[in-house]
Please model this.
Amino acid sequence: MFSILNKKNSGRVESLRFLRLIRLVLVMLAVIIWLQQQVTAGEIEPAKDDQKPYRIVFQGNHALGTTTLKKAAVEELTAFDKQGQRRSDVDDAAFQMELAYRQKGYVFATVDYQIEQIEGALVVTFVIDEGPRVILQKIEITGNTAFDLQKLLPFFEEDKSGLFGQGELLFIKSNIESALSQIGDLYISQGYRQAAIGDPQYSFSDDRTRATVTVHIEEGIRYVIDDVLFRGDVTAKERELLEKPRQELIGKPYFRRRRLILQSRLIEIYGNRGYPNVVVNIQEQQGAEPGRVVLTAEIIQGPRITISEIIVRGNERTSEKFIRNRLRLKPGGRFKLKWQQKSFQESLQDRTFFQSRPVP
Model:
């Protein structure tokens, strides 16, 4: 009985220690986050810069601190410092600061500036009107039948407010444009070659803290590969090898890159058959019904190659015998593209082939 009680008490003590450790970690994390927020807000100033012949002052910034704003415009402020305090650099710096606010959801933020002589010193004052932070309250998409909202909305969920990005979705115009571009890529990858993603329309609440985005999509016809035909130098054996990529493509969504994929696959098949100089041209034709595409591959195989000799040059540190033993291609054998590729890949992976040298 005493032994059992000791085990129970020991387990409780360990549990309490673990809980205390968790609390300590959470407190430390909260302190770190608070300090970061104070620095960002400009309440804790970093070490002062070296003495300059001018001063930079910020007014009106609360959400973004001095350090954050200077970092956003570091190139422009450096140019201002090094190139004789040009007004154009200050103007560019103000623009970069506005962009920094945009990326934090302050879509209405403006950064103006004044350059003046005060008591014999040049003073640059950035005057900031942050405006409200805007939350993306609603996304309305119309015209989408191929993909529902559950498929499309995650493209917009890149930046959220709150601790660890678990809060509401921020209104960041560049992110919205990026999301629409990705949606356009999605449509193309699924065969909607003529899909058009309309320009987003924005509306805001009266207090400008909430935004609604409306987008219309014209999907157009979905294009699908109906068949793949082979013409030219195609023997019975090669036709058998070509049947696999043909079956893999039939029924798949069609986009232009499919032609390059098919071309590369055919070059690989013929290269492994001993035809390294094969020429493959892929033509696209309309099928019997709208949206049906027939791909026709015109193949000129060229001569079939047998390796007569392998010449090794430039091997100052590695013996020729060692190199030849590592090659898959051999004199008198049939050329195969995969053997050529494997020979070079294995050679590159083996560091004994190469040693670094200083560049003259």
User: Anything to note?
Assistant: The CA atoms of residues 270 and 278 lie 7 Å apart. The chain has four domains: 54-129, 135-218, 224-300, 309-360. Residues 1-9, 38-49, 351-360 have pLDDT under 50 and may be disordered.
